[in-house]
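Need residues for this backbone.
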């Protein structure tokens, strides 16, 4: 059990370091894997169409299979662009929401709400974050991957510390029992 936990911890640390050093490679790998999964799904849909041509629903399988094939190939051929799409959409949503909260804070100020400033501050922070995501979607992906890498390293180190602490406690308990 101890060896398994230590091995897992070391894997976390190595993967975390790789994520910090090369976030673009991880992002591309995720897009490649997602593209392959979508291509497998597309293949399944096309095979379903071939096996069930008589039913009216089978045409839907063919259309879905063709569209999934196109999307899967697109993900594999353009991983950077695909990876930047999610932060771009999130940036738009967060920006719109923060503008709404900004207007709410000014309305609350007019109505005499004493804590309106906190809403103003958080809306400005969200606005800046949303604009950052919108204008730097690929950098945002890199930052998120690096943050995940840092979390994995911290988790791996804390697991090693915990395993060593429990091992020492087990030795102490064994001596006390004897």
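Answer:
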């Amino acid at each position: 059990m101890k060896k398994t936990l230590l091995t897992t911890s070391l894997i976390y640390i190595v993967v975390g370091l790789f994520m910090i050093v090369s976030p673009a490679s991880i992002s591309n790998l995720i897009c490649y894997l997602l593209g392959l999964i979508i291509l497998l799904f597309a293949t399944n849909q096309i095979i379903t169409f071939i096996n069930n041509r008589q039913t009216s629903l089978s045409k839907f399988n063919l259309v879905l299979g063709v569209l999934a094939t196109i999307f899967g190939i697109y993900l594999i051929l353009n991983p950077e662009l695909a990876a930047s799409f999610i932060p771009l959409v999130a940036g738009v949503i967060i920006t719109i929401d923060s503008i709404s909260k900004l207007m709410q804070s000014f309305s609350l100020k007019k109505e005499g709400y004493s804590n309106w400033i906190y809403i103003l501050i958080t809306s400005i922070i969200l606005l800046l974050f949303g604009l950052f995501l919108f204008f730097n979607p690929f950098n945002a992906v890199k930052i998120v991957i690096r943050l995940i890498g840092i979390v994995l390293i911290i988790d791996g180190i804390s697991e090693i510390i915990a395993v060593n602490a429990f091992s020492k406690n087990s030795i102490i308990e064994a001596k006390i029992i004897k």
